[in-house]
Amino acid sequence: QVQLVESGGGLVQAGGSLKLSCAASGRTFSISAMGWFRQAPGKEREFVAVIRRDDGNTYYAESVKGRFTISGDNAENTVYLQMNSLKPEDTAVYYCAVAPRYYMNILVYTKEGPYDYWGQGTQVTVSS
After folding, report:
1. Among residues 123, 128, 120, which one has the least CA distance to residue 23?
2. d(CA 28, CA 51)
3. CA 10 to CA 54: how far, in whole Å?
4. Other Cβ atoms within 10 Å of 120 Cβ, number
5. How far, CA to CA in Å, does 22 sit from each of 14, 27, 43, 66, 89?
6. Per residue in 44-82, pLDDT tens?
7. 127/75 Cα distance (integer angstroms)
């Protein structure tokens, strides 16, 4: 089992920045990738970003590319999501997730299927 605790959400004006953190505990040796997803009111949960643990490779959703940066601290078993130039459409509950299985094709991690463990979510609200 892996437990995840997210933090860093809040209310920010459009154009502002926030940094989310996700700390993993438990069987952290089983982590192959950590991802961020988000769910806006009335919408399905969607992929935001992923970082693969062994090589640090990252991948982003087109909607956040160039504005968000995912990074990880393997020693601390923590992943971060730096969000800049925030827009009202970024408003959502943001979830951190862990994928135990390794996939060479990082695009596999853009789907929810590989993720076995999820955090409780943190609210991000961007006002216009």
Report:
1. 120
2. 15
3. 31
4. 11
5. 23, 15, 23, 21, 22
6. 999 999 999 999 999 999 999 999 999 999 888 999 999
7. 35
